[in-house]
Design a protein that fits this description.
The chain has about 325 residues and is an alpha+beta fold. About 15% of the residues lie in helices and about 30% in strands. The strands form 2 sheets. Strands 2, 3, 4, 5, 6, 7, 8, 9, 10, 13, 14, 16, 17 and 18 form a 14-stranded mixed β-sheet that branches.
Length: about 325
């Protein structure tokens, strides 16, 4: 029986789920960000300024959907100079546009850049004490849990830039997705294409999705990492449902046009690619490419009961990649 791993119906919408503006430390206003991305084919932007959670619904129009969110930083207090200590960053995107209450708040800390001037616009539970962030797995997990319980889609960001390693990120639980690619960090010089980190997490039991994002702060770090969301409509609820169900793929170049499973095989159709690779939870990779270097645009890979999960990477002639979300075999059979 044929099972579509990207929905058969609906439309693809180009999205950036990690974005900074003049609300925190970006150089473009939210309006300028909208105009720039719309002019370059994007339909969805999650506004995720640092610790500032505001309503951006006024930017919505036909062809453009703003998502409300914010990024939270949990920094190591090690007494080291700036840039030497570890940090953990998570983005939280509200699943409901009417949910405008920040799930952990401190009345005087954690805002920087232009953030302080927006403090009086944020909503929080005034009956709760100030939330103090500590660079521990317990605190990170508590923040993820609070975000999830409060109705947010939670992502784990740029582990290389953050100086985090296996012992750090494997201790985090409950996120919905991680950044397999962070373009803003990539163009700064960080090796922030992270398929190995994604496989670490998957093999460690985390059933999460893969994002490619810009993490933009100016025009120079835009348009380099995105996801293509397959949804029935360009509406907040439909897009958030697609994110929750994993109906998207991550890219910084190639296109994935179709993806389905049928009778023990996964099939994919793509834009022109140099190679298409399928990785599994076990030591069993498969690759489709032409020996004469001509492009490939489709591939078929076997899926057996014992392969745990599979995920497919499409690489173009410039070395840029598109990645599917991992699909677990026990969800197929």
């Amino acid at each position: 029986m044929k099972k579509y791993l990207l929905p058969e119906s609906g439309n693809f919408y180009k999205a950036n789920l990690h974005c900074h503006t003049t609300v925190s430390d970006g150089s473009m206003t939210p309006e300028e960000v909208k105009a720039h991305y719309m002019a370059n084919g994007y339909s969805i932007i999650a506004f995720t300024d640092h610790s500032v959670f505001l309503d951006h619904s006024d930017l919505a129009e036909d062809g453009f959907l703003p998502l409300n969110g914010f990024e939270a930083e949990i920094d190591e207090d090690s007494g080291k100079p700036q840039g030497y200590g570890k940090t953990c960053h998570i983005c939280l995107v509200a699943k409901d546009p009417k949910n405008l209450t920040i799930p952990f708040y401190h009345r005087s800390a954690y805002l920087f850049g232009n953030g302080e001037q927006y403090r009086d616009q944020m909503r929080f539970d005034e009956t709760q004490p100030d939330y103090i962030r500590e660079y521990t797995p317990e605190c990170v997990n508590d923040m993820i849990r609070r975000g999830k319980e409060a109705g947010f889609f939670v992502t784990y960001n740029h582990p290389v830039w953050s100086l985090e390693d296996y012992s750090d990120y494997m201790a985090y639980e409950g996120m919905d997705a991680m950044e397999i690619m962070n373009y803003g960090c990539w163009i700064e010089g960080y090796m922030e294409y992270n398929p190995k980190v994604y496989d670490d997490m998957l093999r460690g039991g985390k059933r999460i999705y893969a994002l490619s994002t810009d993490d933009n702060h100016s025009k120079k770090d835009t348009l380099g990492g995105w996801i293509m969301v397959k949804a029935e409509k360009l509406e907040y609820a439909a897009v958030m449902q697609a994110l929750e169900e994993g109906n998207f793929y991550a890219s910084w170049g190639p296109e994935i046009r179709e993806l389905w499973y049928e009778d023990g095989y996964v099939h994919i159709k793509t834009s022109e690619a140099r190679r298409i690779v399928c990785n599994y939870s076990k030591r069993k990779a498969r690759c489709t490419e032409n020996s004469d270097g001509t492009p490939v645009t489709e591939a078929t890979f076997p899926v057996t009961d014992d392969c745990g999960y599979f995920r497919i990477t499409v690489m173009d002639a410039q070395g840029r990649c598109a990645d599917t979300n991992a699909c677990f075999v026990d969800d197929l059979l």
